[in-house]
Amino acid sequence: MSNQVAEIAEKIQLLNADDKHALLRMLLQDIDGPDQDADEAWRNEVVRRVKAIRNGEAAIRALQEWQG
Questions:
Q1: Confidence at residue 30, expressed as pLDDT on a 0 to 100 scale
Q2: In the chain, where the domains are located
Q3: Contacts 24+ apart (CB under 8 A), 46-55
């Protein structure tokens, strides 16, 4: 480990849990970049659910589940 990394690690230990989580999210985002596959999958799921609501499938499914 370089001296610079060691110094940063010492400073990280002084942070509270929320700041550590924020820093970790920033570092992971920097390393991995945005997850395009997950973003696209969520967009597709939202579109699917909106279509189900508009054509009444969501209401029918909810009623069937409620009636058991």
A1: 84
A2: 3-32, 36-67
A3: none
pLDDT for residue 62: 65
Assess contact for 23 and 15: CB atoms under 8 A: yes
Sequence-distant (6+) residues with CB within 8 A of 59 are 53
What pLDDT is recorded for position 4? Answer: 94
pTM summary value: 0.45
**SS3 letters across 42-63:** HHHHHHHHHHHHHCCHHHHHHH
How far apart CA 12 and CA 32 sit, in angstroms, is: 21
Q: Is the pLDDT of residue 45 over 90?
A: yes
Q: Which amino acid is at 64?
A: Q
